[in-house]
Write a structure and sequence with these properties.
alpha+beta; four-stranded antiparallel sheet; 1 helix
């Protein structure tokens, strides 16, 4: 019984040691891949649409370029409220190529200064990039 107990402890320590070495190896692989990761670089990260009347819709294309070394895949884009709808390219963007995040803001029910943040999630490091659509909604 004593031998069985000692064998189990030795096996547990051996597995723990093997797992800790694997973690270090995978950390090195992740670091190497991070250097080759795509980079989402927006031409402008803020667009001021100025003053508009309540009920008007504003659209803008946030132009970006993949300045990284591998294809850029945008998985999601969300805005801070339902009045702002972002649309992203479905196909991967190759290194050196450009694309647009098309954003539509509907000012119905809004009044005053607006700052709509759009969060774009992609296979970049960091995974999220933010752009802003700002302006003022007036009654007339």
């Amino acid at each position: 019984m004593k031998k069985l107990f000692l064998s189990l402890i030795a096996a547990g320590m051996l597995l723990t040691a093997c797992n800790s070495n694997q973690t270090g190896a995978s950390a090195n692989i992740t670091t190497a891949n991070a250097a080759d990761a795509p980079v989402l670089k927006f031409e402008k990260d803020t667009r001021d649409f100025g003053k508009i009347k309540r009920g008007d819709k504003v659209t803008y294309d946030f132009k970006f370029t993949n300045t990284g070394k591998s294809p850029l895949i945008i998985t999601d884009a969300v805005a801070t409220c339902g009045c702002t709808k972002p649309e992203v390219p479905k196909a991967p963007i190759k290194p050196g190529e450009s694309g647009n995040v098309h954003v539509t803001f509907d000012s119905a029910g809004k009044l005053g200064l607006q700052d709509k943040q759009i969060t774009v999630t992609a296979n970049t490091n960091p995974a999220q990039t933010r752009v802003h659509l700002i302006g003022e909604v007036t009654l007339n």
